[in-house]
Write a structure and sequence with these properties.
Chain lengths: ~140, ~140
């Protein structure tokens, strides 16, 4: 079982159980995220803009079905790209400055960051298959 | 922390008897899932609208379940089933305006549902079903 990594996890509201929050190891349920780095605005510069590798940012919402669908794929992609790609998740409601800065409205939304800035044209909204995601990454200069 | 023993507690919205925000809290082994009064309403709506529009639920019905829960929560809190797969600068204003109230304008005009609740049969993620039982719904929500 992969360990979980969470940096300043963002829990949107009290009383909810959003799927993106890191959970302790245990029986795995379908679509449960077991390796995820949730970040917030507070650490965005450090974790994304100053990262030594390209970063794929996945903006998500608690009750967004497609967000849940792609969550395991995000985990798997980071693993499969073996250090060439970092993946982070950002919950939209609790990080409004980032939402406004990158004009994220449809969720899930993917943006690739390289060398301290968003790659032009890399913002993509909606669910993706594995093949679509690899194609999208290749288009923006990231391959395995 | 709530225990695994079945337990149901009815919570009325603060300060309001017979409010539309009446909720039921159901204890689960891991976390409380806030069950909306509007969950059944949105479940039935989703089935009826899928049939009326000739669309299908996602092959992974937990996606369907999550979206229906999100719609129900928005109906509880905003009075309208605002799309749960988008970020809004002002949710109340958006709910009043109506463009993104389910079924949203893109769905009504072009059968485009980026929540993946209503999928045309040529969509890679479309299943063959237009029904979802309350048991399936709860299982899909509880699996988060």
């Amino acid at each position: 079982m992969l360990s979980t990594r969470t940096i300043a996890p963002s829990v949107p509201r009290a009383g909810r159980a959003p799927f993106g929050v890191a959970r302790p190891a245990g029986p795995r349920r379908s679509l449960q995220v077991t390796r995820v780095t949730d970040i917030t605005e507070a650490v965005f510069e450090e974790e994304v803009l100053k990262a030594s590798t390209p970063v794929l940012v996945d903006f998500w919402a608690s009750w967004c079905g497609p967000c849940k669908l792609v969550a395991p794929l995000m985990n798997q992609i980071e693993k499969d790209y073996g250090g060439k790609l970092k993946v982070v998740k950002i919950e939209h409601d609790s990080n409004p400055k980032l939402i406004a800065e990158f004009k994220v409205y449809g969720l899930p939304a993917l943006i690739v960051f390289k060398d301290g800035q968003a790659v032009a044209g890399s913002k993509r909204e909606g669910a993706v298959t594995r093949a679509m995601l690899e194609q999208y990454l290749a288009k923006h200069g990231i391959s395995k | 922390m709530l225990r695994a023993a079945p337990c149901t507690t009815r919570l009325a919205a603060a300060g309001s008897r017979g409010s539309r925000t009446r909720l039921v809290v159901r204890a689960t082994a891991d976390a409380a899932v806030i069950e909306s009064k509007n969950l059944e309403v949105m479940r039935k709506f989703s089935e009826q609208y899928a049939k009326r529009s000739g669309t299908y639920f996602c092959v992974d019905k937990s996606v369907t379940a999550v979206v229906i829960q999100g719609l129900a929560e928005h109906k509880d809190t905003l009075g309208a089933p605002l799309c749960p797969c988008r970020h809004y600068d002002d949710k109340e204003a958006e709910a009043s305006q109506g463009y993104w109230n389910c079924p949203c304008v893109p769905m009504r005009e072009r059968r485009e549902c980026h929540c993946m609740l209503f999928l045309t049969d040529d969509n890679d993620f479309a299943g063959k079903e237009q029904d979802i039982s309350m048991d399936e719904l709860k299982a899909g929500i509880g699996g988060i």
